[in-house]
Amino acid sequence: MFTPAAQAMIGQLGLKKGRANLEEFADTLLALATADRNIIAVTSDSRGSGKLAPYGKALPQQIIEVGIAEQNLVGLTAGLAASGKKAFGVSPACFLTARSLEQIKNDVCYSNVPGVLVGISAGVSYGALGSTHHSLHDLAALRAIHNLTIIVPADNFETREAVRFAASATRPVYLRFGKSAMFDLHPAGTKFEAGRAIPLREGRDVAFLATGETVVHALLAAAHLTGQGISARVLSLPTVKPLDTAAVLAAGRECRAVVTVEEHMVHGGLGEAVASTLLEAGLHPKFKIAGLPDEDTVTGAQADIFRHYGISMEGLSATARELLGS
User: Which member of 31, 109, 130, 198 lies 3.0 to 4.6 Å from 236 by CB, making a disulfide possible if both were Cys?
Assistant: First the structure.
């Protein structure tokens, strides 16, 4: 996934590889559901891809399979949540948030039931399967629906905490997971709070504001830029909605440039949320959204797609240097 130079930087930073966030999600949910019989998983022929086979074997009375029927999955998740259960509806993000958008809007969000929608294999995790299986629209579509918390974890720690938060939430939550094994980015004692950014690195020249599986690339880019005399801040923004506006505004005031990074189309996601926050506050740092452009997305593995669109240590470093005029 990483170039030799990026692998060397990983070694210098001492980053340790964990598991796929999706695996961490499944094990965390199993632990929570073992202690709470009201937790129910709902799947749409996604028990295997959602890493929930051990859950189903251990808790067969707490999992429901609806088949390839995502609209039914969301409706059932909403109904269970309305009746006092804590339901997690698990389905590939590309289908969950497109085929079932009306049900998400009306049955879950407008009805204000505490259902949890879990988009798996999100972004370009299904890279080789092409655009029909990419989920590059979900943040844009769901940000436009009120009453929904959107969380995109960057590593196993953020995933565990996000699942625990969702299990106790009293309002709807959307969790977004990819398939790649992730590096552990946070030291022991890090605090996770929904709606709050997590600082990973301080800097004053450029700020990388990243979410999900792109965060590690922003961290590597910041370390790479340090060797070139550029001070780079890195914020992990697991909660895309509600956005941590205080952290965003601080980055806009204190840094000469801001780069947002996301595994999503450049329209409607984290980047546009950050841009509007900065502009409404009258802040005008040099700014760039690093994401996937409005074009036919290239096909390939996630790593290939990331590199093609500059979501890599080298690509993000070049973007920062360009903005700073270095």
Answer: 198
